[in-house]
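User: Quick one: structure for sequence A, then sequence B.

Assistant: Sequence A:
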Amino acid sequence: MPHLGILTSRSHPTLPYLLDELAAVPGLQITLLFDAKDFSDKDRAIFADRTQGAFPLRDTASLFARCACVDVPNHNDPQCLAEVRARQIDLLHNGGTPRRVGPELLRAAPRGVLNAHPGILPKYRGATCCEWAIRNDEPVGVTAHFMDEGLDSGPILFPRELAVRKGMDYSAVRVALYRLALKTGAEAAQAVFANDLSPAKLPPQPPGEAFKPIPDDLLAAVKRKLAAGEYKCAK
């Protein structure tokens, strides 16, 4: 039975929805690896602004009961590494880790660490790629890839472009992107196990630019652009 470990925190707002998507993957064993550093107030405020209540808090007790649950002080801590190895976890998935994944954790599971990055790689690495792409009138989307020691620079499994319709405001685009990322993450995990994939079996990712968080004035301009129907990739 394939064994997936999810690097996350106990109150990460999209974790229940990721587990919903993974429930459709047949025969999958899941271990939740909870970092002691929880979803921050700053990140919670950003998430709330982006989603406007589209991902309400849920009772996670029944969801967590279907998985093995392990609390660790830090995802890069030796305790976490030991749990991954002792439990024979085949593949790790970034389900909202609050840490920069270190080299030992990248190698702890035989099939590596999977990520669903909210940007089209290799062009859009880093932060707020959705917003930068809209500002640049380029496609918004998600890329499933294996993580490496760089920033969103590991081998690519596949991209998924988001169909943005005219009339969608900023929150609608962001909510659709989160949902696409959750679905893409589950599809990528299934593809890894079905096709016997690992980072070493895929070509290296071509060079790309790493974006920094978009400044507030440009974020406001992106929101106005969507509201005015001026984003050129919207259909």
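Sequence B:
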Amino acid sequence: EEKFIYPERFRGLHRLMQRDDGAVRCVACMCCPTVCPAHCITIIPAQTDDKGIEKMPAIFEIDELRCVVCGLCVEACPCDAIRMDTGQHAHPVESREQAVETRETMLARGIKSTAVQGGAGSSWRDK
């Protein structure tokens, strides 16, 4: 039994990124379920404890059996909350509910994000 070597551009399973305080970066903007051609992403927003100013996902689920691994959700995310760079293949399951990735399982694969709001700015060529 030999382990299959995936191509360099293999995306892998989804993961959710975390802020410095450990909270999910997702603000439930609904860009990823809107752009998803397979309609496999379910987000139900909720208000945060931070005076109700910002939203967060109360439920964030991805049905990996419906996902076509296109990566459009990653490209559409304005706050670097979702990535597909784990390099892990979807695990075999015996029932459909075992194939649904929840917010907790995707956060377990995630790390703290190093992305900054606004990027490098207009002076990125000066470096």
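Residues 103-109 form the longest helix (7 residues). The longest strand covers residues 55-63.

User: Thanks, that's what I needed.
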